[in-house]
## 1
Amino acid sequence: MTTDPTRSADPADPAKHPLYPLKRLLEIIAFILIVGGATGLLREWIGWKWLHLFGFFHYVIPTGYEVYGYIVLVVLGLAVGGASETLTRTDKVHR
């Protein structure tokens, strides 16, 4: 009988799951994308030009498409965050 390396040895402790470091990395990336997109939208809609949190996204978004680009960043951040939640889920059916 072989053991599945993706299953946690202790289901009560998700930090012992082998994919836990990847989950943490994806959560950090999701946070950066969501906050960067939200602050970019605030800068565009409200006009807060002094708001420079994660301002490096300004160089990634094409000129003239700022609002669309920041919306894409927020949606992408939500998708990455959702994907990170499925990595260490223990209620998955293993066959």
## 2
Amino acid sequence: MGEGWLAEVAEAFEGIKAGLDETGDVDLGDYVRALERIPSIFDFLGSVFVFAKKDLSEKFEHLKANADGRGTVREAIRADVEAGRELAGNTKTSPEAVSRPLHRVTNGLKFLNLLLGDMLREGNDDHLRVSAKRAFSGSIEYYLAWAVKKAVAAGLYLLPSRDAFLTRIGETEETARGPAERVVAATTPVLDHVYGIYADLGIDL
């Protein structure tokens, strides 16, 4: 795993964006299949984000088992609202609920979007931990327990260098830029759309 991963993510979400541009919404099953690639980012970053990988992987497996046949993302979330399960966090007692797990996995996508966007900044030669801290703060930090936040803050100093990280994903500074720009360009409107659905339906997660 590693070589070609970034281009695979780009291709998957370019397909999602194309569907969004054409229909005005995102098919839930297609979106979940694209999201399958996202937890790997935490493997590449190392053990400091092991909690995030575990959490996202569990929620992804729930989504994979419950996404097909549910229509679009908006339709699935609206169905949860109508059934009063949009805030359900226990996937065992509320197996049909997709809103909360989908939101958490989408936050993982936002982490990747922010991480790559920060790394692509003109003149940015910061250590990877600087970009990772910004991405963490803007995506998944807000819903974590205080102890986990402190552990991540301390663990950021154990992250690999930029070059080591890029090597792990099968890239160099030169080869990564193209697919990274594609990932950011494709995922930004998708994220805006999905988060917009939660806002439109008055769901605060």
## 3
Amino acid sequence: MHLAYPAVLAALLFCTGLYGVLARRNAILVLMSVELMLNAVNLNLVAFDVWLRDTLHAGQALTLFVITVAAAEIGIGLAIVLLVFRRRGDSGIDRLRDTAEPPDPRPGGAPDGAGTPADEPRHGGPRTPVRKAGTTA
């Protein structure tokens, strides 16, 4: 078997997927393009495994691993896309930047990993003191 045929096909698949990632604005089409790129890599792994006549079949084993990772990636990616579509009614990736958290309005900002301080309520309203039963203020 000539190695050039699967290598050229894999290069075409990879270039098509790369064009889809760079040019598309729909999140589902971007995920499909990433899958095309991963399939091009899988084709190269299997072709080189056959061409080198590897007794361990490492290329085929790595291909199974890549397929597993791709399945997990597409599952999580579609879940995120569906969540964004349900909230916004659009799955365009240009508007995904709007989902980021706004910067902290306090001067200097909060340090990384700092949570909500205990004296500030989580809902944003004024905190009212809690009175115990049977006491007067």
## 4
Amino acid sequence: MDKTNKRLVKDVGKLVSLDYEIEIKADNMSEFTIILDGPQDSPYEGGKWKLLVTLPEQYPYKSPSIGFLNKIFHPNIDEASGSVCLDVINQTWSPMYELRNVFEVFLPQLLLYPNPTDPLNGDAANLMMTDKDKYEAKIRSYVKKYGSLDKVGANDEADQEPEEEAKVEDSDGDNSSDPASQLSDTPGVNSDKELSDEDDDMDDSQDDSDK
């Protein structure tokens, strides 16, 4: 085993010893998932995110690839793909850094101190700069909706189901589509009762003429 692979195994082993929840995806430990908790005293507090970590063959001389698997509202994290914009990972990575630095320092600091001038999520960046209260409220709503491990891979389609069901219920209670109702409301078209009354009148007239 070469020096790079030894370093990879060592760094992953440190995360395990620090009680991080890790699931190894590759035999050589080059891909795994890890659980990240939202920092205390922040809008992300109480949230849990599963991250996919991929380590290149050249690790630690090349940086790890990190992506969020459940949604998070943050200026520097792409909402759709979960990719992270962080200089210390993407541009200024050094072999001196360890994986524990990423999850103990770099990512928690990113959640606490976003950089809205270099966003991956323009809506989050704009809201942060224009209305901080609404920005933090939206973060909390995302934490409540997506910030748990059972929401990994969740999308907005499931969130729309209750609304669609409500529309179906409304249509069931509305008789505007009932053909009989439409006929009775149409000018010049008589209801069954009116037709029955007309038939009775015609019978009476016929009887009078016979007499």
